[in-house]
Amino acid sequence: MRTFPKVTLAALAATCALAALAPAIGQDRPESILPPGFGDTTPTPAPTPRAPSAGSTAQPARPAQSGQPGAPAQPVAPVPAPPGGLATIQPLPPSSPPTGPDGAPIVPPVGTPAPIDPAVVAQYEMPAFARRSLDRVGAIGQTEGGVAADAFGAADGPYLQTLMRRLTAPLPSRWMSILLRRVLVSRVETPAGVNGADFAAERGWLLLRMGESVAARAVVQGVDTANYTPKLYQVAMNTALATGDPGGLCPLVDGAIQRVPARSWTLAQAMCAGLSGEPSRAGTLITAARRRNVASGVDMLLAQKVVGAGGQGRQAVTIEWDGVDQLTTWRLGLAMATGVVVPDPLFATVGPQATYWRALSPGLTIGNRLAAAEAAAAQGVLSNAALVDLYGAADGDDSVQSAATATAQDLRTAYADRNAEARLTALRSIWGASTDAAPAYARLVLTARAAVRIPAALGKGDADRLVASMLSAGLDHSASRWLGVVDRGGDAWAMLVLADPNPGTRLSYGDLASYSGGPGDSALKQRMLFAGLAGLGRLSAGDIERAAQALGVPIGTENAWTRALDRAARAGQPGTVALLAATGLQTARWHGVPPEALYRIVAALRAVGLEGEARMLAAEAIARA
């Protein structure tokens, strides 16, 4: 099984485009691109008359009469057609305007021009073949890693929107977050009862709350600007700020001011004028906004700093965070756009989503992104490959602290050293000196592919960490070779029997009873192993009933959530199942997930063809419980 990397540098696209255009936009005196002679006031000499060809009856052209100013020009005789039959068209001689009986010229009446039909203009601005339908909105198709277009089946649109709106994010599970992102960003059919733009807005808003700023922008930009609704305008504003891309607001600002007037859009108009190389207009708009008390303090200064980043933006603005006691999307977004470092204490005033947004921001230095990137990797926002790439770039970067540089050097050894013992020693250093304490889950994600290179015989003492590390990146086939090496009844064994890609794997009640639970909350781990195996269908019906009673896991309990999940699974709706499964995981940590909920979720995912995600989710429960 593989993960789907999602970190891109799409947030730089608008900024780079403006930077590339800034010299041309900002120059005081534009250069002429016409050939020499065009636009000169000196009259061009008349061409030398040619002698008529034999047999031609055309008269030679008369010399031009250059007399007093205002003298009427003489008519020019036609020039003979050149060989080949292509005649040169000459202007007709001027004619006198018609006059009335009194000798005054007759001026034809000027009629009122017919109004231009906006629909006709729209045809030229966006031809029909280039328009995108609201019936299917999303960034990736099924061949690109997304779910099928009918992933929500016949589910009611308002019902799905309610699920999204009430979902508390981020989720405790990396693998559930990855699956939910895939569903929300996929090119899916708009369900009945909702507007396609509004449905995209709800998806984008949930992605933002999950910390998936880049994915949210991809969904929002999948709708043509002519189809934007007030809800989508609001989400688009937050998406542009979360990605540190105020330039992304410029195509929307005119329509937004008319339909959803707000202080943020008023300042966005000024910022877009500055980014377009119109500093005078931007200054006027900023002055008007200040006079109307649209914004003040650091909010206004950050907007002015964005204006100064545009063409001819001849102003330097210093941002001071003294006295600022609350971080907002506006402040974080414009700070990321202009490379301003936000003090770490301010991140304690907002949810963890802001930390994940910072991890995805290319406008910040690597040193300011590393800690956030680790948190994002543990959540599923960053892939193993993206985190490794970031640490690879950190080695030798002046903005990176010495501890991070040491980790980057250990990571190089763990991945590239020819000596297996040296690689294992480097992995232990990355995980932490203590072999008893569980390493941070982000470090397991960081070392996933390096763990694959450790021989099973050499790494048997570190099997729990090595297996958890490989499975954090979905490397189930690589991890499965450890199944005959690890001790039966340990954490590594429990994760492997859950993640085993062989669909025919079956276990007995005795196998389940042999699991001691390992370090940590052993009783919870035992219940989680049972829930995962039962949901994957790897225990017989009799063993499931016996273990449920012995471990006290009420897997047969029914409520509104279990019934909704069962209906969606029976209807074959993977998108709806993913939403409902995420609803069942709304807790801060894995310790708060009931084993019976894990059983229902794993079984439902498996029923709609998402067995790979179900196996990784069950194994993650052992690694993080």
Description:
- With about 625 residues, the protein is mainly alpha-helical.
- Residues about 1-45 and about 50-90 have low confidence and may be disordered.
- Among the domains are: about 135-320 and about 325-340, Serine Threonine Protein Phosphatase 5, Tetratricopeptide repeat, CATH 1.25.40; about 485-625, no CATH class.
- Helix 10 (about 280-290) runs antiparallel to helix 11 (about 295-310).
- The chain has a two-stranded antiparallel ribbon.
- Helices cover about 50% and strands about 0% of the residues.
**What is the approximate shape?**
globular
Largest sheet: 2 strands, antiparallel
CATH level 1 name of the domain at 136-318 and 325-341: Mainly Alpha
Radius of gyration: 34 Å
Number of helices: 29
Total strand segments = 2
CATH architecture of the domain at 136-318 and 325-341: Alpha Horseshoe
**Percent of sequence in beta strands:** under 5%
How many angstroms separate the termini?
22 Å
Q: What's the SSE blueprint?
A:
Elements: H1 13-26, H2 118-125, E1 136-137, H3 157-166, H4 174-185, E2 188-189, H5 196-210, H6 213-220, H7 230-242, H8 253-259, H9 263-275, H10 279-291, H11 297-308, H12 329-338, H13 353-359, H14 366-379, H15 384-394, H16 402-416, H17 420-431, H18 441-446, H19 448-451, H20 463-472, H21 476-479, H22 491-499, H23 509-513, H24 522-535, H25 541-551, H26 560-570, H27 574-583, H28 595-607, H29 611-624
Helix pairs in contact: 3-5, 4-5, 4-27, 4-29, 5-6, 5-7, 6-7, 7-12, 8-9, 9-10, 9-11, 10-11, 11-12, 13-14, 14-15, 15-16, 16-17, 20-22, 20-29, 22-29, 24-25, 24-28, 24-29, 26-27, 26-28, 27-28, 28-29
